[in-house]
Write a structure and sequence with these properties.
The structure holds two protein chains of two kinds. By secondary structure, chain A is mostly beta strands. Chain A has no helices and eleven strands. The relative contact order of chain A is 0.34. The mean pLDDT of chain A is 97. Helices cover 0% and strands 48% of the residues of chain B. In chain B, the strands form two sheets. A six-stranded mixed sheet of chain B has the order 2-10-9-4-5-6, with no helix packed on it. In chain B, strands 1-3-8-7 form a four-stranded antiparallel sheet, with no helix packed on it. Chain B is globular and about 40 Å long. Chains A and B meet through strand 4, strand 5, strand 9 and strand 10 of A and strand 5 of B.
Chain lengths: 113, 116
């Protein structure tokens, strides 16, 4: 099974400052169709997960442009250019290339310093 | 707009059964694969099961294989999860999510508590 390792597990950030979350895969996530099925989700306290980024770098509709995704192969990054109070929550990566199973990272908790 | 609404959760004793439902609206349900994903209290997300758009392909996590059954009724736009032989470690919020490798929309979740 593919293992996704997120770091850091906890990320205290000052409002207005950037934040970066890493997601490393135990094997390449490039699929036979040429796509890389690596998505990022935000889960605010008490809410359901919400997808922010799909296929590495595509922002979902309504997601602020301060969120961006990048990476390739086994190394991926979610960046928040300027953290706002509403960005507090847990961020997860998930892979949908090598299934079953679909696997999630363990999550990164973003909090305000 | 796309909506997924889970129901059927509750408190149940170990060894008993429960059936969860996920009512879909706002999209052509029969065109999409659907997942169940769970989240134990204070823990991360764990994939549980998936079913293809027409029910022809189904996969389960090892932790639930042989005990849980995913199904769908495309005429009712509803996804199901039949959970048998429940264990304490199955205690979680259960979410349905749309898409084969997309997970683009999620429901609000339904809480299942397994305890004696």
């Amino acid at each position: 099974d593919v293992v996704l390792t997120q770091s850091p597990l906890s990320l205290p950030v000052t409002l207005g400052q950037p934040a970066s979350i890493s997601c490393r895969s135990s094997q390449s996530l490039v699929s036979s169709d040429g796509n890389t099925h690596l998505n990022w989700f935000q889960q605010r306290p008490g809410q359901s997960p919400r997808r922010l980024i799909y296929k590495v770098s595509n922002r979902d509709s309504g997601v602020p442009d301060r969120f961006s995704g990048s990476g390739s192969g086994t190394d991926f990054t979610l960046k928040i250019s300027r953290v706002e109070a509403e960005d507090v929550g847990i961020y997860y990566c998930v892979q949908g290339t090598h299934w079953p199973p679909w696997t999630f990272g363990h999550g990164t908790k973003v909090e305000i310093k | 707009q796309v909506q997924l609404v889970e129901s059927g959760g509750g408190a149940v004793q170990p060894g008993r059964s429960l059936r969860l439902s996920c009512a879909a609206s706002g999209f052509i349900f029969s065109h999409y694969g659907m997942h169940w994903v769970r989240q134990a209290p204070g823990k991360g997300l764990e994939w549980v099961a998936v079913i293809w758009y027409d029910g022809s392909n189904i996969y389960y996590a090892d932790s639930v294989k042989g005990r849980f059954t995913i199904s769908r009724d495309n005429s009712r736009d509803t996804l199901y999860l039949q959970m048998n032989s429940l264990r304490a470690e199955d205690t979680a919020v259960y979410y349905c999510a749309r898409g084969w490798s997309d997970f683009d929309y999620w429901g609000q979740g339904t809480l299942v508590t397994v305890s004696s």
